[in-house]
Amino acid sequence: MLGAVELRCGLLLGMMTMVGLNAQMVKAATGEGPGAAAIVVPAGAGAGGGDSWWRHAVLYEIYPRSFQDSNGDGIGDINGITSRLDYLKDLGIDAIWITPMYPSPGVDYGYDISDYTAIDPEYGTMADFDHMVAEAKARGIRVIMDYVINHTSDQNAWFKESRSSRDNPKRDWYVWRDGKIGEDGKLGPPNNWQSWFGHSAWTWDETTKQYYYHYFYVQQPDLNWKNPEVRKAMYGVLEFWMKHGVAGFRIDAVSRLFEDPEMRDDPYMPGYNAYGDRNIQHKYTDDLPEVHDVLREVRKVVDAFPGDPVLVTEADEPNIGELTKMYGVDGKNDEVQLPMDFQIADVNELSAVKFRKLFDEVEANTAKGQPEYFFSNHDQRRQWDRYGDGVHNDQIAKLMAALLLTTRGTPQMYYGEEIGMRTTDPARIEDVHDPIGKLGWPKEKGRDGERTPMQWDASVHAGFTTGKPWLPVPPSAATYNVQVESQNPDSIYSTYKRLLALRKSEPALRDGAYEAVNESDEHVFAYLRKSGDETLLVALNMSAAARTIAVKSAGREADVLYRSPLGKMGLKAETVSLGKIELEPFGFVVARVK
Ligand code: GLC
After folding, report:
1. Which CATH architecture has domain 510-593?
2. How far is the CA of 222 from the centre of ligand 1 (A)?
3. Which residues fall within 8 angstroms of residue 253, CB to CB, at 6 or more apart?
């Protein structure tokens, strides 16, 4: 009998023929040997180069608290991330976005920042950070920081000053208003605006007898972006991190920056939310036009640095019109290069029809901006559960990997998605960390479930920590982990790894034009990717039944570069007729048209 390694080598030899990889690249794809650096990297894409690297990069979001602990305190840290850079390199990642690691009281787990230009001791030191950036750069991996632009912590020195008196020089750095006498004759908040995290967005401050505004938690007062000093200070933050070698920023909650100057009440909608509040439409606090003035300024600040810095926005825009504006108003492309596409992330249903429509839409965006795709992040239930049907979840996870990594755009992964991590909610309210989970229990269990420790191996805490992990390691870690899955050529992990390697070796997948085919097929989402003489076909069966499709294209046959599930062909070379492409339930094919 063949041992696991021999078997894997045999399978890979087959794959080499199929995808035209050389031996060094195969070593890289298996993570064996020094060849890990040999995967074809697009020209000029090494850290520090600048050729719009972000157009063909794969981004990977790290929730630092949960990625890798290096000192046994049960909390992930910077040195932990550094120790896993080889893993990321080997997987095929080009840039990591790390969620906030700045000093913070931790009410919103780092999204309440008390000092923007330092590292929270929980995560390490500035020296650790610089070391991580240098080590990442040595591996061609860029580091993107989180820029929490809309609000600070109430423990930030700026807010402490602001709240100290009405005539403090920093009073106007935040949004302060008088209360209003309500119908009951009592003094209440200035209007009906609600916090995204439940209840009024206004909190009374006894010292100065006014209300302050917070789109999120009470402990996250909103900055007043109309104030030029706020802008100056916050742009200084960008410069500080650029000087520490970062490659750009993911801008948090950017559409919430401005509020209606007339302070009009938001319209109510039917029903109640998980916190018991009436539903409202955030009409007067979201997507005000001034947001774009700030984004243009932010872009100018980072553009003054070399290396083509990137801006990614959390922009959960309601439609393609608003999303397009994030690239720049009037098609100008002078704001954000990569606005995250929440429309696509949140289809939440395996629907070829819906995906085709949305991909076509963003493909045709009038700013000609680069799409940015993702399916999971630290605020969303993991895609394994959201897209899984309860029966074929693993195969669906592989299908989603193919959708993410073969469409035209910049893909963004979330740690653990490559091994099929699932959402593991706390069982009891006493175990909940995320405050919205405490407030909304049991309807809203909070976001702990998608932030559990990375599952590296089958050891007691999954290789995440030697101490007690801050959130429990899910039971699924016994079989869903990097170590176990890397032994199985048809695992979710191996599928991601091969697709990532294909993206690097095939220019058509990386940068090629996108063209939808078979547009009336309700079950199979299929498209071509074209670059020069190369045409690749991708066909994704989004249904639980086997399907056979015929594709009209210039060629008549295609060499299969990758098929999932591997099935009886395994990784052997396969040529298919374009008139008859067979797909297993939730299966997919990536093939080169001859
Ligand atoms: C963003 C973050 C989220 C955070 C919120 C407030 O949506 O992704 O985690 O709670 O902003 O900062």
Report:
1. Sandwich (2.60)
2. 13
3. 148, 149, 150, 151, 215, 216, 314
